[in-house]
């Protein structure tokens, strides 16, 4: 049984991959009512993935990241910012006061870059939006040196691109680069490749502070002060939930969704804005492209079919490209343990790796090694099986 | 009828197209995307477009 009959108007708040996937997912589920996308940015939906890579490097044009246009029967309102939610009246209130009514709501407002600059400080760069990438590229044109604060995937990708562009690059973080994300073994391999390309690393266990006013010019790393022409922060992102603050929706460092991406009756959510937990564990985010897609599809199905929506099999998959290494990851890499090398040789820059716990595969990684992703997932302990479309 | 354009230089083999629309896209043994249809039959058009949309590097275009 579907509830589609009581659902005539769906509003999707957000304008990126989770939002457009959910809109398209609704059509694939047979929903034929009105769909309106409220998207804050003025650019038509685009992928952020190349912003820190080919686009920042100048290899790819900005427009090449634009996603294929959303089907004509979906109304896309660019420059429309959701400012408040009136749950009881089922309305999204826009920044200019306009009220947009809905029967069903998809929340996909994603996240924004966290910043370190204090009040009155300017010039800190981040890479989250097209406009951020354009601004940073312009600054890099005339810069000789760059400090990247944050050694997660994004910070390391930006550092890699800056190194390719011939800049002197220093990466600062309070933790050793990438370790929390991919464990010591793989992190060390990437850091080695970065060092070979001239990148320097600084550890600031107590965190950093940006110095300079108004223009930031240096980074206080605790035991030393580093200066550079350009300072880029890649210190994580903050879910865009402020517009929900007055609502009764559950917020725990993000919008809480259940295993079917449901938030409240007739409200679902997907992508970087969400947090979820399993079996009463901690709330976790999964801010990756694949999760935004899988959740967008699931959220659409759950809005139409409710609790009858089949659950997808979890199969985490993400990737990064940096320092000449094209790294694809399936599963969660256990810490403090070297992998089994299934093919290639990691020291030669190309390999297929597998991690196991108690003889059960839990993660697989391909480095500069092409293979079908379903094979990688199988090696990472995920059943290959049919796709997880609900 | 609609056709699909693949930008092979952009494709990085993430397989989201295949995961979303297995009737239309498949990754071969080298992880390169392969089209299972030449021209897209009308009943697969929406699926083909959904598969193209989820490509993180925007390597696929469905031309109606
Ligand atoms: C530079 C960069 C590189 C990345 N590279 C990779 C990668 O290689 N692999 C990977 O797996 N992931 C990568 N990611 C992460 C991936 O891009 C995100 O997980 C994905 O974009 C999440 O999509 P989303 O739609 O949930 O949120 P977002 O992309 O954050 O989109 C949210 C949308 O909502 C809009 N919005 C926000 N607030 C409002 C409001 N109040 N009203 C209306 N609209 C609003 C925003 O304008 C935006 O369009 C990268 C991210 C960045 C920034
Ligand atoms: S989703 Fe894009 S990058 Fe991935 S295999 Fe398909 S075409 Fe290639």
Distance between the termini of chain A: 15 Å
Task: Return residue spans of chain A where pLDDT drops below 50 for at least 5 consecutive residues.
Answer: 384-390
Low-pLDDT segments, ≥5 res of chain B: none
Question: What is the correct CATH architecture of chain B?
Answer: 2-Layer Sandwich
Taking all Cα atoms into account, the compactness measure Rg of chain A is 22 Å
Tally of contiguous helical segments of chain A = 7
User: How would you classify the quaternary structure?
Assistant: heterodimer
Number of strands of chain A: 25
Greatest chain-chain interface? A-B, 36 and 30 residues
Write the layout of secondary structure elements.
The complex is a heterodimer of chains A (390) and B (64).
Chain A: E1 9-13, H1 17-28, E2 34-39, H2 54-57, E3 74-78, E4 82-86, E5 91-94, E6 99-101, E7 104-107, E8 111-113, H3 130-141, E9 145-149, H4 153-164, E10 168-173, H5 179-196, E11 200-203, E12 209-211, E13 218-220, E14 225-227, E15 230-233, E16 237-239, E17 255-256, E18 262-264, E19 267-269, E20 274-275, H6 289-305, E21 317-322, E22 325-331, E23 340-345, E24 350-357, E25 360-367, H7 373-379
Chain B: E1 2-6, H1 16-20, E2 25-27, E3 33-35, E4 39-40, H2 45-53, E5 60-63
Antiparallel strand pairs in B: 1-4, 1-5, 2-3
């Amino acid at each position: 049984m579907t509830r589609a009959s009581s659902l005539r108007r769906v509003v999707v708040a957000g304008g990126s991959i989770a939002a457009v996937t959910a809109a398209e997912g609704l059509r694939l589920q047979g929903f034929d009512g009105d769909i309106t996308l409220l998207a804050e940015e003025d650019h038509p939906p685009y992928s952020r993935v190349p912003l820190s890579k080919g686009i920042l490097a100048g290899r790819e044009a900005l427009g090449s990241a634009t996603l294929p246009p959303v089907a004509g029967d979906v109304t896309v309102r660019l420059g429309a910012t959701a400012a408040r939610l009136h749950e009881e009246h089922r309305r999204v209130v826009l920044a200019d006061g306009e009220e947009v009514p809905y029967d069903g709501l998809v929340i996909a407002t994603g996240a924004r870059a966290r910043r370190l600059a204090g009040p009155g400080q300017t010039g800190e760069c981040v890479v989250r939006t097209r406009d951020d990438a354009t601004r940073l590229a312009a600054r890099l044109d005339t810069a000789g040196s760059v400090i990247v604060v944050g050694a997660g995937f994004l910070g390391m990708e930006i550092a890699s691109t800056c190194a390719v562009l011939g800049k002197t690059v220093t990466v600062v973080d309070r933790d050793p680069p990438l370790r929390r994300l991919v464990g010591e073994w793989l992190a060390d391999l990437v850091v080695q490749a970065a060092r070979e390309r001239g990148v320097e690393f600084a550890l600031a266990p107590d965190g950093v502070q940006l110095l300079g006013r108004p223009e930031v010019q240096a980074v206080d790393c605790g035991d030393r002060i580093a200066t550079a022409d350009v300072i880029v922060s890649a210190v994580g992102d903050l879910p865009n939930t402020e517009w929900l603050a007055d609502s009764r929706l559950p917020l725990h460092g993000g919008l809480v969704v259940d295993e079917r991406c449901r938030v409240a009756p007739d409200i679902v959510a997907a992508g970087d804005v969400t947090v979820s937990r399993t079996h009463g564990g901690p709330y976790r985010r999964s801010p990756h492209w694949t999760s935004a897609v899988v959740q967008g599809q699931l959220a659409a199905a759950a809005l139409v079919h409710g609790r009858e929506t089949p659950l997808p099999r979890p199969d985490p998959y993400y990737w990064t490209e940096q320092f000449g290494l094209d790294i694809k990851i399936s599963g969660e890499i256990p810490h403090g343990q070297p992998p089994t090398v299934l093919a290639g040789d990691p020291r030669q820059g190309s390999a297929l790796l597998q991690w196991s716990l108690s003889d059960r595969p839990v993660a697989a990684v391909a480095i500069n090694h092409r293979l079908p992703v379903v094979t990688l997932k199988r090696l990472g302990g995920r059943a290959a099986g049919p796709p997880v479309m609900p | 009828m609609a056709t699909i354009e693949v930008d092979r230089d952009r494709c990085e083999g993430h397989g989201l197209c295949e995961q979303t629309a297995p009737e239309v896209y498949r990754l071969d043994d080298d992880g390169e995307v392969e089209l299972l249809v030449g021209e897209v039959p009308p009943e697969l058009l929406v699926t083909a477009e959904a598969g193209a949309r989820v490509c993180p590097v925007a390597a696929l275009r469905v031309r109606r």
